[in-house]
Structure formats: structure tokens, C-alpha cells
Amino acid sequence: MTEVEVRPDPADGVPAEDAVARAMIIETVSPLFYARGFTAVGMDELRAVTGVSLKRLYRLFPSKEDIIEEVLHSWRDTWEANLRAQVESTQVPRERLLAVFDFLAAWFISEGFRGCAFINSFGELGGISGRIPAIVRAQKKEFQDYLSRVATRVGAPDTLAPQLAILAEGALTTAAIAGSAEPARQARAAAEILIDAALTRPAPVTMP
Amino acid sequence: MTEVEVRPDPADGVPAEDAVARAMIIETVSPLFYARGFTAVGMDELRAVTGVSLKRLYRLFPSKEDIIEEVLHSWRDTWEANLRAQVESTQVPRERLLAVFDFLAAWFISEGFRGCAFINSFGELGGISGRIPAIVRAQKKEFQDYLSRVATRVGAPDTLAPQLAILAEGALTTAAIAGSAEPARQARAAAEILIDAALTRPAPVTMP
DNA sequence: TAGACTAGAGAACGATCGTTATTCACGCAA
DNA sequence: TTGCGTGAATAACGATCGTTCTCTAGTCTA
């Protein structure tokens, strides 16, 4: 075979394989952090599971907090992708909104489910250091904004989306703590009522 | 003045004043744990704020985890008392259910609000050690059961109470992360719709 | 007054944390 | 072959954790 191996371009040094190493580390480390929390998993355990020496770990990430931030960002990306996929799997307006709760139901019964990683992170680190809570806040806002866009395109009043978001958050925490998938169904049933009420009844307008 | 001081009964030793010391410690320590989390507050800080020496602290409580458990129990008690007071402040059935969200609204605007202590505890310690998550689970179950009793007495179908509980939990986490009291109002508005739907429409019965 | 017991202040202990320095083995140009 | 420099393994560092031990001052009983 011809020798056309992919080899690092000496011009730009090694940042290319650094990037793949970073991605691999985040991917390997995420489930550990999700299962046990950030403080419960030490740097030495990260070294063990990734097979990357501490020296290289600290060259790829300035500190543990940077790893945590990147893990949070990866969680945000996969959450957003999975949610969008479920919502956009149908074109029926009502079902697009209800898809959120079908997405939750499927997640709740998945192996190792332990609640919303962002809510857990807020509970663990919300009282100290401002950077992690800020990321959590941003993720929740993105979710609410996305829900608002979906609801608006369906013709629902502005009041509906926040209510559905609250239902979703409540189902998440309830399912996590109780260890049950039922809250997804209960929240979905409630969402149906709220959606019907919002779509049939006209949006409340301010009285002149 | 006559010398009628209260003095410890030598018959039963000192457990009496031990009990008041324990209560004082829990009361003093609770806001610290709530604000910053359990792991972020060390034993030496507990000694500093309570003025109780480490030796006596460890004589009153076998370990830090026992202090945490007692703090969780005290949170459970005050939550239950405050919620009951708000619910039982009215006799109008519909308002008894909505009182939950008025209770939340008042709480959200209070100084130092940082979300549900139980949800935060679950996020912080849910991944390690089984005792704390068990207490959290029990508290949430008590809340749901209480809501079910209130809903049942109002004549609502069994489906309503879990939906309202999910709304309450969602409002809690959303308000905590966003730092806003608005979720309480939004959840209340949603609850009104769900309550009306449950009370006017007959309870769904299984088809023969 | 003397002696036995107690409680408090704080040092000390072992463990573990995040982070850094040291050691050592190996690939490569001269 | 001989230095040289890179990277992996790991020891070490300072800090902090929960917990225990030491030392000392004081109080109460006989």
C-alpha cells in the first residue's frame, strides 16, 4: 500500500492531536462525574480511567475546574442535540411540545440515570465559585428559550413555554430522587392539559 | 431575688442540657450548610460559629454525617410546618391547593434563598453514601403524600396531586438557578388550569 | 486543703485533595 | 556511540479534610 499516512503537520505543531486527546478525555470522564459528582472524583482517578498522565492532563487543561467546565459544555451539547432530534421528529404542533416529555421518559429509564447533571452541579457547587453556576444558568435559559421558540411557532401564548419548562424540570428532579420514570408520564399528562388550554382559549390580552 | 435557678437534675446526669446544646448547634449550623453546601463547611468552622469545642461536638454527634442528617431532619420539620401553616390558612378547597405556590413565592423572595435544600443535598451527595439520599427521598415522598391528602379531601382525582408536586419541584429548581421568583407565579397559573380541569371534568375511569 | 475527674483549647494524625517537581527510559541527529 | 530532549510514571508538596489526642486549668467532693 502507498505510504500516505496522516501525520501531524510539523508547521502547526501538535494542537491537532491535542484536540482529539481533549475530546477523548472529556468523553471518558463525563459518565464518572455524572455518576458520583465532581468533588468525589479526584485527578488521580481521571488519570487512571483516561490513561493520560497527570503531566499531560495538566498540559491539556489548566486545572480541574477547566475540565469540569468542558464536561458541562459537552453535556449541554448532547442534551440540546437529543432534545432537538426528538422535537423535530414530528411536524404536528401539539406533539412537538409533548415530545419534550417523551424525551424525558426515554431518558429516565436509561441505565445510570441520576437526574439532571446541571441541577446536580448547581446543588454541589452552587454555593461556591461563580463559574459553574453561570454555566448551569445559561443552559437552563437556553432550554427555556428553545421551548419558547417551539411554542411560539405553534401559536401558543407566551405563558405556555415557561409552564412547560417548569413541568420538565419538576419531572426531572422528581424522577431522579424517587428513582422512577412515572413523573415523565404525569408531567406529559399535565402538559397536554396546559397546551389544550393555551391553544383553544385565546391568549390573555391586557385590558384597555 | 430568691435562688431558684434551674439546675441540671443530678439524677439523670446531663442529657437534658446535651439536648439543648444539640438543638442550638443544629440551628446555628443549618444556614451555613444551606448557603454553601455540606462539604464546603468543615468541622473547624462549625466549632467557630457554635462556640462548642471539637471535643464536645464529637461527644454530642458521633460524626459529621450525623450532624448533616439532623440538619436535614430539621429542614424537613420546618418545611412541613411552614407549608401546613400556609395551606391551612384557608378553607376554600381550591385555595388550599394553590397555597403551596403562594408559600413558594414568599420563600423565593426571602433573603439567601438558594433552592430546595433537599434537591441540593441530593446533587451534592446523591452519588455517594446512601443515608443522605434516603432522607431526601423520604422528604419528597412526605410532600407528595401530603399534597395527595389535600387534593383528595378537595375531591380531586388521584392524578392531580402528582402534577402539582411536579410543578412545585420545577418552580423550586427554576427559581433557584435563575435567581428569580417568577416561576412561583408561572407554576401557580399552571396549577389553576390543572385544578380547574381536574375538578370540573370527572375523574378518568378505566374502560370496561 | 488535697485529689480525682471534667471540659476546653488547640496541636497532631492520617488520609486525600489539586498541583508540581523529579526521575528515568527511550527515540533521534551528529 | 553519544548527548539531547521529550514524555510517561510517580514521588512529593502544601493545604485541608474529619477525627483524635494532649495538655492544662478549673471544679467539686471528701
Largest interface: A-B, 49 and 49 residues
Provide the low-confidence segments of chain A as ranges: 1-13
DSSP, total strands of chain A: 0
The dominant shape of chain A is elongated
Beta-strand percent range of chain A: under 5%
Described by strand count, sense and barrel closure, the largest sheet of chain A is: none
Oligomer: homodimer
Mean pLDDT score of chain A, rounded?
89
Individual helix count of chain A: 9
Ends distance of chain A = 81 Å
Which structural class do the helices and strands of chain A define?
mainly alpha
Q: What are the secondary-structure elements of chain A, in order, as H or E?
A: HHHHHHHHH
* Helical percentage of chain A: over 70%
| Rg on CA atoms of chain A, Å | 21 Å
Care to give the gist of this entry?
The structure is a homodimer of 208-residue chains. Chain A is mainly α and 208 residues long. Chain A is built from 9 helices and no strands.
